[in-house]
Design goal:
This protein is α+β, with helices and mostly antiparallel strands. 19% of the residues lie in helices and 35% in strands. The chain binds iron/sulfur cluster (2 copies).
């Protein structure tokens, strides 16, 4: 019997695909337990969904093959990016682009930005956005 695993995923939806009932199909057609813990629409109106799926490896893979047919990008997460606190100017430009909340306002009073690696889903948006090279790929 196949082993049940839990996989953390980030799904990136192009603008036109955001209304698809994909979660419904993951549960109904692929027997997955789905825990959505963050959903966000970016300023460009693209959609991100951060979720845990629990099921057999085979069912998860079949489900992700299904998801990709909607032109959705699947990112398997777990390693994060590196964030060099010494380079961060706390300009806040990354905050609106971080779909998971890994980059967050750590102190609203001082506008200090913080980074929580365990929340990072490796979308790599901050590497593109940060003007000071604070974020880098961990690979
Ligand atoms: S964009 Fe870069 S410098 Fe600005 S707050 Fe984010 S990580 Fe820090
Ligand atoms: S790669 Fe950067 S923008 Fe993406 S989730 Fe991680 S910290 Fe946030």
């Amino acid at each position: 019997m196949s082993q049940t695993i839990t996989q953390k995923l980030m799904l990136f939806f192009p603008k036109c695909e955001c209304e698809k009932p994909i979660i419904y199909h993951l549960v109904k057609d692929y027997d997955l337990i789905v825990n959505v813990y963050r959903a966000k629409v970016t300023p460009e109106e693209e959609g991100y969904l951060v979720l845990d799926v629990t099921g057999t490896e085979e069912d998860i893979e079949r489900a992700m093959d299904f998801v990709r047919t909607f032109n959705v990008t699947v990112n398997y997460t777990g390693k994060g990016v590196t964030w060099d606190e010494r380079r961060c100017t706390h300009c806040g430009q990354c905050l609106a682009h971080c779909p998971s909340g890994a980059l967050h306002l750590a102190d609203p009073a001082t506008r200090q930005v913080g980074y929580d690696e365990s929340e990072c889903i490796e979308c790599l948006a901050c590497i593109r956005i940060c003007p000071f090279g604070t974020c880098a790929s961990a690979f």
